[in-house]
Amino acid sequence: MRVQGPGAPGGPGASWDSSGTELLPAGHRVGDWVVTEPIGAGGWATVYAGTRSGADAPGAAQEPREVALKIMPTSGLAPRQARSVAEAARREVEIGVRAGHPRLIRLLDSTVLSAPGHPALDGAIVLVMERAGASLRDLLGAGITEAEGARLIAGICEGLAHLHRSGWVHADLKPENVLIGEDGSVKLSDFGLAAELTTGTHGHGPPMGTLDYLPPERWRAPLGELGVEVRPSADIWALGVVIHEVFASGAPLFSGATPVARGAAVQEYAAGRAPLRMANGVPEFWRALATDCLAPTHAARAAHTAESLLERIAVRQAAPSVPRSRTGRFGRATRIALLALAACGAIGPAIWSYAGHTGREAAPGGRVGIAEPPLQVRVFNAEKGCRERTDRDPRCSLGLAIDPMRPYTAGNVVPTRVWHADVLEADCQLLSGEVVIDESDTRSTHWFRIRLPSAGPGGGPGAEPGAIAWLPAVRTKDRPPLPGCPAPTAAR
Ligand SMILES: Nc1ncnc2c1ncn2[C@@H]1O[C@H](COP(=O)(O)OP(=O)(O)OP(=O)(O)O)[C@@H](O)[C@H]1O
């Protein structure tokens, strides 16, 4: 349940949520949808399972048949409360329209109910969403393996990284708002408190939130005309709390009988008067990651972005299959070879392609309408001077590898060159390829399999149709949610 944040004046509470589930009986029709059963309720809304009433309606074939209907009643609320509900719905719709991503629950439609004969429903806002199978909260009690926890947390980081890149802070990250699709994929939901980063560094949101996930600075945040200041680092704090819960079977990180008492424990920790005490079962890597997320001040936490955390998780996931001696091999000589790659011209033997691979296989679960590979990645050149020029100077060109399992040296690149900001199509990712260290010392074993554009993005030699190559993940800031690549041992 979400409640008002500390120090907030009155606002919509959770008073009607328990009775809300009776609002819509099974069989009730909402636009093109028929209610089947209640799924859940929060402070603003009751969520029902719905199914399409007319399968033959125009466009029906493109839409899922099973949906979730989030009903946000406004009648009976004080005008200010009704405005808050309408604002929350507006933010959900705005994110749905402007920031769609496979790691965010998909908004299909929104409408306002007209039900003059049913005063409790009249004027209610309805959000029609893709339906998830469960929430992370549902999974916590059963215990989550480290591998599964890693996958779930990586999915949350991908969703946050996308939101932050798109200029939004979620501001209410918690296990209830991490949904699990029927194919097991992670989807962030509930953007009713999301804040747009209007200044680039922070935005403003209503003085509300879920107390157990609020960062220390929010407990003292002044309430201005625009609301309270919200920064992406607030989501990172909440992520730290969630990481702990994932590996501690849902046990709260800060002790106290009530959310307010636990908030006092947060303040004690932030003031340096109490240590962070995580459950013993939290594995070392995740303990370290959560500790960084839970840095007590915004300034200390800001260094740990969702992208950088994702990168650390990717490297860690790749680590067990990379023998230590192999990683240790890459000293100065390899690094110099890597740097040389940024400047060398077109070099390299034949292009490696997978016979019979189309790159258009449906994602697991194959849901219609959810983004499927290939997905776009934009090339990033760590050399600042190269990012500022658009003349495709050969010295600023970057090479794509032929084989991600061999050192990324001049002899292992395809003829097609790419430049900063080129957009490439990736169809899968490999977390445990050869180590690559870029010019800014970022080290990664993560690679994307790229379909080479037949014209050559730089106007260089074109590739044969369907040819592929490999982009080291250090050469892009994007982290599209791609499936894993099959082990690249295929014919060369
Ligand atoms: N698309 C969906 N598919 C399946 N279940 C969903 C979906 N959206 C929400 N739910 C379920 O309904 C519950 C309430 O939804 P939601 O959190 O969006 O409502 P809310 O009133 O904004 O909640 P809160 O006040 O706790 O933030 C969720 O915890 C989740 O279990």
UniProtKB/TrEMBL annotation:
UniProt name for this protein: non-specific serine/threonine protein kinase
Any single Pfam family the record assigns to this protein: Pkinase
Alphabetical list of Gene3D superfamilies matching this protein: Transferase(Phosphotransferase) domain 1 (1.10.510.10)
Top-rank taxon, per record: Bacteria
Cited SUPFAM superfamilies: Protein kinase-like (PK-like)
Species of the source: Streptomyces flavotricini
Plastid as UniProt keyword: no
Binding site for ATP: 70
Region spans: Disordered: 1-22
Domain Protein kinase span(s) in chain numbering: 33-315
EC number: 2.7.11.1
Taxonomic lineage of the native organism: Bacteria, Bacillati, Actinomycetota, Actinomycetes, Kitasatosporales
Sorted UniProt keywords: ATP-binding, Kinase, Nucleotide-binding, Serine/threonine-protein kinase, Transferase
A GO term for molecular function: protein serine/threonine kinase activity
Keyword flag ATP-binding: yes
